[in-house]
Amino acid sequence: MSPDRPLPDSRAEYDEAFWRGAAEGRLLVQECADCGARQLHPRPGCRSCGSGELGWLEAEGVGEVYAHTVIRRATEHPWFADEVPYVVAMVELPEGPSLWTTVVDCPPEAVEIGMPVEVTFEAVAEGIALPLFRPR
User: Fold this and answer.
1) Number of Cα atoms under 13 Å in the Cβ half of residue 52
2) Does 79 map to a domain?
3) Which residues contact 78 (CB under 8 A, 6 or more apart)?
4) What is the per-residue pLDDT for 16?
5) Could you tell me if residue 114 is inside a domain?
């Protein structure tokens, strides 16, 4: 029997909208009402000006691979042992922020810097879906 998949901690009030959006198939980005900066992952305050006046913007759901690595050995959690090899990548969104994610639906050796990708969501538990990216 395989171990349970590790799940994100989605209990914080400031990221509730992000996880609800992901469960609905929408990628949401925080936007500061005071300075206009956009950020991912959700935080209680703006990382540019410190304001707590943050709203949500639905991202287009496309981006480019900025950096990536292939994980070939599961060391953090036993659930990942059956997943290797897999690609962890930083994806830059046209809305401004970047996020660390997993690239799916292609061989790890096909992932390259500058590769255009689009978001897809994987439901992993009741009410929780992970934003992953695949080639477009």
Assistant:
1) 3
2) yes
3) 2, 3
4) 92
5) yes
SS (H, E, C) 57-111: EECCCEEEEEEEEEECCCCCCHHHHHCCCEEEEEEECCCCCEEEEEECCCCHHHC
Contact present, 2 and 10 (Cβ < 8 Å): no
Q: Which two tokens stand for residue 18?
A: 């992000």
Range of the domain at 62: 13-135
What local confidence, expressed as pLDDT, does residue 78 receive?
86
Q: Which residues in the chain land under pLDDT 50?
A: 1
Task: Report how far residue 39's alpha carbon sits from residue 33's, in angstroms, rounded to the nearest whole number.
Answer: 12
Each residue of 74-97: pLDDT tens digit?
Answer: 877 888 888 999 999 999 999 999
What are the beta bridge partners of residue 58? 28
Spatial contact of 3 and 77, defined as CB atoms under 8 Å apart: yes
Q: How far apart are CA 110 and CA 68, in angstroms?
A: 11
Structure tokens at 47: 């990382």
Inside any domain, residue 92? yes
- The 3-state DSSP class for residue 52 equals coil
Whether 7 is covered by a domain: the verdict is no
Q: What's the confidence (pLDDT) of residue 12?
A: 86
- Count of structural domains within the chain: 1
